[in-house]
User: Which sequence fits this backbone?
């Protein structure tokens, strides 16, 4: 089938290993794999779209709670006292906690952010155009894609402007843990997490003080401070974990979608021209960008009761990796999946998960961010083109670009 070790981040340094995934989908769509970053017991590698969707929804047999969502075990979760993030909870606990942040993501809240997003996008394109005038070149990742997601999450959480860079750097260190250049020996950067918690506590304390003085801001941090689960306020650590998840989940993922999307448009100038000629394609273009970018390559579950996936028996305790990076290119779910088609319909990608209780809370927010940035580029930077090859990070969890040089063509 394939001798490639998908648990080795280096395997992804030249992009998603499509040949290996195609071989797996054809010859062993649910196969037992072993790797350097997984234990002796190995894991089930789920590669077909239909199986990823079914397994993602089957929360009664497949759970993120026992050992986490990474390809390696988060053994500390075996201790029931270890506080866990929303993404590591099962219903009914998950349902109660998700309700707390839900209100930050209603269509009304997202629409309120839209005007702000357009203003930020204009600042970004003005600055990028100035840089192009001065230097002839920009880096799409740093100069276009990074700013909007950070600004949006900061507005939602009420993080003041002067702290944005610090938050961005910390979230990078936390999510980039399996990138050799991240300096963290394949482990989440504990020090960065501690700093993020400390920051969350200070911000929380300031907000609480303001609230006690009668000043209430309409942001998620304030809602979390007010919130009660089963009659009790969130503990300091629960509050910190929420904060961490929201900063990390909303940042690199959306930045990756924007920068990978631009990279695909650079390699497919005919698709860029289609968008310039027909703006009604922007909606389908956003989802096509999300499909090919697949910013999160997989999430993992642990089997909590014997069951089957796609006809293959899996036993309690087994680990199951759901490869979104494979499902999004499955020829049985997408016509000509390797081609980039800004008008693609239908497009049932699993970039935000395959459905089920953990479906991405920020999906519509992310869609809007990508849309706003894309429209801004079409309006203000229609002649932007590549000035060098895209440089990928080296991770088997996130599909982030490190750099993409661009100039006017
Ligand atoms: C293109 C950008 C994004 C991608 C690719 C993405 C992807 C995902 C995926 C794959 C999941 C897990 C789904 C599952 O397990 O079934 C998830 C969950 C989540 N996402 Fe996103 N996401 C993006 C943007 C955002 C944004 C902007 C936010 C918030 C500001 C956000 C907040 C969350 C949260 C809180 C969860 C956990 C939900 C839960 O456990 O109930 N995401 N996301």
Assistant:
């Amino acid at each position: 089938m394939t001798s490639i070790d998908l648990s080795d981040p280096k395997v992804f340094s030249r992009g998603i290993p499509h040949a290996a995934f195609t071989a797996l989908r054809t010859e062993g769509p649910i196969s037992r794999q072993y790797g350097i970053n997984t234990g002796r017991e190995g894991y089930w590698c789920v590669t077909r779209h239909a199986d990823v969707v079914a397994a993602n929804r089957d929360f009664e047999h497949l759970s993120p709670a026992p050992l986490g969502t990474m390809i390696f075990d988060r053994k500390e979760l075996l201790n029931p006292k270890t506080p866990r993030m929303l993404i590591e909870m099962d219903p009914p606990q998950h349902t109660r906690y998700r309700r707390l942040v839900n209100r930050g993501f209603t269509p009304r809240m997202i629409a309120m952010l839209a005007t702000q997003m357009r203003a930020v996008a204009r600042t970004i394109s003005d600055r990028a155009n100035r840089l192009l005038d001065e230097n002839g070149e920009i880096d799409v990742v740093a100069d276009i894609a990074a700013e909007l997601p950070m600004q949006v999450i900061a507005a939602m959480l009420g993080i003041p402007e002067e702290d944005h860079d610090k938050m961005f750097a910390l979230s990078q260190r936390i999510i980039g843990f399996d990138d050799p250049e991240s300096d963290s020996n394949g482990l989440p950067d504990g020090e960065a997490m501690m700093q993020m918690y400390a920051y969350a506590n200070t911000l929380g304390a300031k907000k609480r003080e303001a609230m006690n003085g009668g000043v209430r801001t309409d942001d998620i941090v304030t809602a979390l401070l007010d919130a009660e689960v089963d009659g009790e306020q969130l503990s300091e650590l629960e509050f910190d974990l929420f904060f961490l998840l929201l900063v990390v989940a909303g940042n690199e993922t959306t930045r990756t979608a924007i920068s990978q999307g631009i990279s695909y448009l650079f390699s497919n100038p005919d698709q860029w021209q289609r968008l310039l000629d027909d703006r009604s394609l922007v909606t389908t273009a956003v989802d096509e960008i999300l499909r090919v970018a697949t910013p999160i390559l997989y999430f993992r579950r642990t089997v909590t009761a014997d069951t089957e996936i796609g006809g293959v028996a899996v036993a309690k305790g087994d680990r199951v990796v759901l490869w979104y990076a494979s499902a999004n290119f499955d020829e049985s779910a997408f016509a000509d999946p390797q081609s980039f088609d800004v008008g693609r319909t239908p497009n049932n990608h699993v970039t935000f998960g395959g459905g089920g209780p953990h479906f991405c809370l920020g999906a519509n927010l992310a869609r809007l961010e990508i849309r706003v940035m894309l429209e801004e580029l079409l309006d203000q930077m229609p002649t932007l083109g590549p000035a060098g090859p895209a440089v990928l990070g080296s991770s088997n969890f996130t599909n982030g670009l490190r750099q993409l040089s661009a100039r006017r063509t």
The pocket of protoporphyrin IX containing FE is lined by residues 56, 86-87, 98, 153, 245-246, 249-250, 253-254, 257, 295-296, 299, 351-353, 356, 358-362, 365-366 (CB under 6 Å). The first strand starts at residue 30 and ends at 33. The chain has a mean pLDDT of 91. The chain is about 45% helix and 10% strand.
